[in-house]
Amino acid sequence: MKTLEVDLGDRSYPIHIGTDLIDQAQLFSACEKATSIYIVSNTTVAPLYAERLTKTLEKLGKPVRTIVLPDGESYKDWKNLQLIFDDLLKYGADRQTMLVALGGGVIGDMTGFAAASFMRGIRFIQVPTTLLSQVDSSVGGKTGINHPLGKNMIGAFHQPVAVIADLNTLKTLPARELSAGLAEVVKHGAIADAEFLSWIEVNAKALLACDTAAMAHAVLRSCEIKSAVVSADEREGGIRATLNFGHTFGHAIEAGMGYGEWLHGEAVGCGMVMGADLSKRLNFITQDEVNRLTHIIQSMNLPITPPKFGAQRYMELMQVDKKTEGGQIRYVVLEKIGKAQIKSVPDAQVIETLTATGAV
Length: 360
Ligand SMILES: NC(=O)c1ccc[n+]([C@@H]2O[C@H](COP(=O)([O-])OP(=O)(O)OC[C@H]3O[C@@H](n4cnc5c(N)ncnc54)[C@H](O)[C@@H]3O)[C@@H](O)[C@H]2O)c1
Ligand SMILES: O=C(O)C(=O)C[C@@H](O)[C@H](O)[C@H](O)COP(=O)(O)O
Ligand SMILES: [Zn+2]
What we know:
The protein is of the alpha/beta class. It contains 13 helices and eleven strands. The strands form three sheets. A seven-stranded mixed sheet has the order 1-2-9-6-5-3-4, sandwiched between helices. It has a two-stranded antiparallel ribbon with strand order 7-8. The protein is globular.
């Protein structure tokens, strides 16, 4: 097992990465002060892992309950968030209750937001079970739900007290979900570590085969990159926005298609192709580099052609992005492979990208 720390002063926490971690009660030591523990999971993940995790948590001598939500991005909303509060209140949760998010990014984001707001804030642990949640969403404390008009529009920054990433849970993950997770892995290389991007390129086959050693490296390096950025800029005043590479276009695809039609990772993969094209138009990277990144994304079995919503609809969907300031949409672009920056770009150049990539 490898452990790294997200360094945030008195809100610092460990990320544990290894195999069979959900059976190890000592990793959940933050629950020692808890009055009760609620696992929050969904109808797919709970039957696979909730019983094992319950046995582990019961060793800590606390009452353990499981709340099971419907599965899917389309349920990441107010109505289904309320189901968590309903059970917490029904069964007598209090301010010392610990929530444990068992699932992918949807469960992690919703459980985190429930923890941020229940009784004005309780603690929670992330047990991510998708590649995407292990390399990205379980770390950094962005929690929330979607609004029909925009992705993750309602939420809070609320850090977990621990992240426990059990690589063996990835063995039951469908191939399409694995590919979606690889999009965020590629993102970390593209924005912060050119050498890591080359490693991803060389190890694409092992990654797609869910080889444990390859997964361990992808999760560890991604968590190192993300935790360094989050430690430097927890609330996205500056550098944290670079973690949004591919997301201005990607979130527009997710909302425009209807949540759940394209997986988040698929939309981000395609969004990065568009972001790379935009970076080339700003004379930052070359067409060869755009082609290389596009090829890497395609080799992960991710779509590279966006839906044809037309320029006006894309601009409308992107306008609500959380990076927009004073009506100006700001895009994450690649200064070079391994380094990103955030920039306002004239609409005309963005429309050129939309046209060139097939969105118009
Ligand atoms: N908070 C953040 O920083 C952050 C970062 C990236 C993404 N996100 C959010 O995360 C969400 C996407 O997360 P995701 O890709 O994990 O999707 P997800 O949570 O919908 O999980 C994907 C699918 O895999 C299933 N699943 C989960 N673990 C499994 C396992 N071990 N075996 C079999 N099936 C399993 C789930 O039930 C679901 O059907 C989006 O809502 C996105 O906005 C948040
Ligand atoms: O942690 C971050 O910061 C990220 O941007 C990571 C993204 O991969 C993630 O999808 C995040 O939820 C997007 O944030 P948002 O603020 O654009 O909703
Ligand atoms: Zn993302």
